[in-house]
From TrEMBL:
Signal peptide positions (record): none
Keyword hit for Hydrolase: no
Function: Nucleotidyltransferase involved in the post-translational modification of proteins. It can catalyze the addition of adenosine monophosphate (AMP) or uridine monophosphate (UMP) to a protein, resulting in modifications known as AMPylation and UMPylation.
Top class in the EC scheme: transferase
Cofactor(s) for this UniProt protein: Mg(2+); Mn(2+)
E.C. number: 2.7.7.-, 2.7.7.108
Primary gene name: ydiU
Organism: Thiothrix unzii
Name of the featured protein: Protein nucleotidyltransferase YdiU
Length: 519
């Protein structure tokens, strides 16, 4: 196996915990604790991402080395790794939750590849840390398969995200109450190795701010700017101001992409918001099937409906406002923070507007387009239409012979389509008239639309089928899905079965239509 070069700036430049016990506790005056992964019984590599391996400088022969399962199962370290768990807090479901920290994520080190790119490696489910609270620090197979596949699916969809290098089954069992209904059971354990330039979250800044530790806060802010935003220029105050605006901008772009593809994060607490604007923590996430802005996959949020699809742009703003509260004692000038929040709103509106235009195959949207676009979304909701299939098939409309039949496969309930047929026909006329104004050929429009409207997303039931097979010892579906999701905008007829709408059996099944945070 080719060696990796490590340059562990986070632990080298920032203060760490002086106490070396794993015991769950409050950690002050420090941003991390040194902690090694807890060994597992029989680590086996179930899958890996060749693209992420390549980022590190590894090829198939490196990944086939038996030491890979040992390292990414937490039983061995590579030369240069300095494992640690980060100390952070967060607002969860709208309230301040105090210290949280990496309860089960252990960063192994910051590898620097031949091109000079920094990729931090982090195990999720590697055992207890000082931040585990009352939990075991482990992760189950089902949640690890979901994290592994979705990280890579999101990347290939063009969405900023943490990546996943490997999926290792540990050979140990983990006790979980999957539905939080008082029926805990043993499940197979697994570990994902995630990869990102940085795993710093909004919550890393909030915790020292809440504790009034301005020195620590300033150190972390200036470290983040120096390591992760090296392009920012100027004196310290100016860099901090530009940085906050940039964090806001990136967060807006990330969330606009989620809305474009129908991704619902499910648990947008501030400890799950990356300072780089990357999608992080693939827990109870889900993909919209029938279009419903009020849908959330997270059973914990079933009644609160805080983290539904439609709320995400607003929650992004709310979370940035909490980050801005944390930075206020440091940045002091509220107009700077206000400018950042305004940049969030403006960037979101502009980016999502462009995406919406592209999704419908329109060159540029204007206010005059609002009525027919709003009507389209109302109809999608009322008629129970699959969002992904709708936009993909909409590209097949021909201006000379517009025919609603191209959309047939997107309807979950044909009887609703039949009932609302007149409204749909009227809408189609408006849409076609609007397309004619742009004068694009059918072919040009189709190509443009298919570049932003995926054929393949990680449908909730597909992930569950891959999990069920893996639990029986068959990883072939994980590999097939990983492969299909590599080219989400291509037709890939060989994978047509992964593009089908949710089957009826999955409508109310756990793991397919609803997920708890238990993982
Ligand atoms: N130390 C832990 N051990 C086992 N399970 C945990 C632990 N910490 C969190 N979890 C599980 O994960 C759920 C979500 O927790 P949280 O958002 O803190 O982070 P996470 O999912 O562990 O990981 P990350 O944000 O790093 O992706 C919790 O409801 C719990 O089920
Ligand atoms: Mg989390």
């Amino acid at each position: 196996m080719r060696p990796l070069t490590f340059d562990n700036r986070f632990v080298r430049e920032l203060p760490g915990d002086t106490d070396n016990v794993k015991l769950s506790r409050q950690v002050y005056d420090a941003l991390w604790s040194s902690v090694t992964p807890t060994p597992v019984a029989d680590p086996r590599l179930l899958a890996y991402s060749p693209e992420v391996a390549a980022l590190l400088g590894w090829q198939a022969e490196d990944m086939n080395d038996p030491r890979i399962a040992q390292i990414f199962g937490g039983n061995a370290l590579l030369e240069g790794m300095q494992p640690y768990a980060a100390c952070y807090g967060g607002h969860q479901f709208g309230g301040w939750a105090g210290q949280l920290g990496d309860g089960r994520a252990i960063s192994l080190g910051e590898s620097v590849n031949a091109a000079g790119q920094r990729w931090e490696l982090q195990l999720k489910g590697a055992g207890q840390t000082p931040y585990s609270r009352r939990a075991d620090g482990r992760a189950v197979l089902r949640s690890s398969v979901r994290e592994f596949l979705c990280s890579e699916a999101m990347f290939h969809l063009g969405i900023p995200t943490t990546r996943a290098l490997s999926l290792v089954m540990t050979g140990d069992k983990v006790m979980r109450d999957m539905l939080y209904d008082g029926n805990p059971a043993l499940e197979p354990g697994a570990i994902v190795c995630r990869v990102a330039p940085s795993f710093i979250r909004f919550g890393n800044f909030e915790l020292p701010a809440q504790r009034g530790d301005l020195g620590l806060l300033a150190q972390l802010v200036d470290f983040t700017i120096a390591r992760d935003y090296p392009e920012l220029q100027g004196d310290t105050a100016s860099k901090r101001a530009q940085w906050f605006v940039e964090v806001c901008r990136r967060t807006a772009i990330m969330i606009a992409h989620w809305m474009r593809v129908g991704f619902v994060h499910g648990v947008m607490n501030t400890d799950n918001m990356s300072i780089l604007g990357l999608t992080i923590d693939y827990g109870p996430y889900g993909w919209l099937e029938d279009y419903d802005p009020m849908w959330t996959p997270n059973t914990t949020d079933e009644h609160g409906k805080r983290y539904t699809y439609g709320q995400q742009p607003y929650i992004g703003h709310w979370n940035l406002a909490r980050l801005s509260d944390a930075l206020m004692p440091l940045i002091k000038d509220s107009s700077i923070l206000q400018a950042g929040l305004q940049a969030y709103a403006d960037t979101y509106t502009e980016t999502f507007g462009e995406m919406l235009a592209a999704k419908f195959g329109i060159v540029t949207l204007s206010d005059a387009d609002a009525p027919w676009i709003n009507q389209a979304f109302e109809l999608l909701h009322k008629s129970e239409v699959d969002m992904t299939l709708f936009f993909r098939e909409l590209a097949e409309i021909e201006l000379e012979r517009p025919d609603l039949a191209v959309l047939n496969s997107a309807f979950y309930r044909p009887e609703l389509f039949a009932q609302q047929r007149g409204t749909w026909e009227a809408w189609l006329q408006l849409y076609v008239a609007r397309l004619q104004q742009d004068g694009l050929s059918d072919q040009t429009r189709r190509t443009r639309m298919n570049a932003v409207n995926p054929r393949f997303v990680l449908r909730n039931y597909l992930a569950q089928q891959a999990i069920d097979a893996a639990t029986e010892g068959d990883n072939s579906q994980i590999l097939a899905l990983l492969d299909a999701l590599r080219h989400p905008y291509d037709e890939q007829t060989a994978y047509a079965h992964f593009a089908e709408k949710r089957p009826e059996w999955a409508r109310h099944k756990a793991g397919c239509s609803m997920l708890s945070c238990s993982s």
